[in-house]
Amino acid sequence: MIFGFSRLLIISPKHNFTYSLNPFDALNFCKYETQKQYLLSNLIAEQQETAPPAFDGDQQDKLLNSIDMRPKDIEVKESKLWKEKDVSKIEDLKTIEKTFDWSFSTPFKGTISSLSESLKENSTFNQQIESFNELIEQVVGPTELSQLPDFKGKLDYTSKTSIPLLLLGKDNPILHYGEVVLFEDELGDKGYSKCFVRYRVMKDCFFLLLRSYTRVDHVLVRILDTRIFHEFGSNVLIRDFIHKESTYEYLKIKEVDTSSKWSLSQTQSDDIYQNLEDRHHTNDQIVLS
Q1: Mean pLDDT on 218-228
Q2: CB-based contacts of 76: which residues, under 8 Å, 6+ apart?
Q3: Are 286 and 154 contacting, i.e. CB atoms less than 8 angstroms apart?
Q4: Nearest to 207 by CA among 234, 235, 238
Q5: Model pLDDT, residue 117
Q6: Which residue from 214, 212, 220, 222 is spatially nearest to 192, judged by alpha carbons?
Q7: Partners of 229 in the beta sheet?
Q8: Does residue 35 register a pLDDT over 70?
């Protein structure tokens, strides 16, 4: 199920900046071609081949919205039986090209663009939510919208800056919090996939979690987490991306509960998180100027 009108926006009129977390962009990164085009290592390799090395406008946009890894395909438990089946006598057998991750594991970290451009979008979907743009204009102000500066956001992918956990402790009270579900699916009764955002706002900062959670029954559990932190008054958004994944076989050896009690729980991704193996971890930051 796609929650088409669900979205979370981070905006900064001062920097003409928008950070959008929405279901359609998240699902777009389930496409293999999109993953290939926006994979950070591919973009860096392309940049190094130019003389002199440089990112042009299109590459800068891709760099800002790049992903750190491409999730490997997951096969259902029964796939081994299908592969062993003799199909040599089937005359009209067709092989279907796979273009999309059927498990909806999305490495999407958010869509970064200029605020002025995001308000000019004229797709059919956006025309249906003009009230959403009107709300943004109320927050930003019509005068400011007409005087927005050029957007100059950059990705510092070499940054090792970590999210300052001390600012997220009990001594910094949460003023507002919430959760936005972007999409979820039961994978043809073969598991469960869910993409959602949790956020909290304190007096001096905000912190959010974008999670792509995938469970393929009796095969594998995967979590792709992007955490974003911003301290008010700074021009930097610190991001932390982590990929955690384990097979059911591994979880069974570790005596982790994978019963229906867990798999039917609304908190299953939180319950299993600490038991999954770390596969990939990166830090970066978005710098606004």
Answers
A1: 98
A2: 190, 216, 217, 219
A3: yes
A4: 238
A5: 78
A6: 214
A7: 207, 238
A8: yes
Give the tens place of pLDDT for each residue, 184-222.
999 999 999 999 999 999 999 999 999 999 999 999 999
- The label of the residue with tokens 């995938």 reads 214
Residues 6+ apart with CB under 8 A from 23: 2, 3, 4, 6, 7, 182, 183, 195
**DSSP 8-state assignment for residue 282:** E
**Cα separation, 95 vs 154, whole angstroms:** 42
Supply 14's token pair.
Answer: 């001062």
Instruction: Give yes or no for a contact between 245 and 281, defined as CB atoms under 8 angstroms apart.
Output: no
> Rounded CA gap, 81 and 83, in Å?
5
Q: State the burial class of residue 89 (Cβ atoms within 10 Å of its Cβ: 0-12, 13-18, 19+).
A: exposed
Question: Tokens at residue 257, please?
Answer: 């509960």
φ, ψ (nearest 5 deg) of residue 228:
-130, 130
Q: Which of 197, 177, 140 is nearest to 7 (CA)?
A: 197
Q: Centre a 10 Å sphere on the Cβ of residue 98 and count the other Cβ atoms it contains.
A: 9
> Rounded CA gap, 263 and 189, in Å?
12
Task: Give the distance from CA 205 to its chain's centroid.
Answer: 21
The amino acid that residue 125 corresponds to is F
Closest listed residue to residue 161, CA positions, set 66, 259, 231: 231
Q: pLDDT tens across 16-26, in order?
A: 899 999 999 99
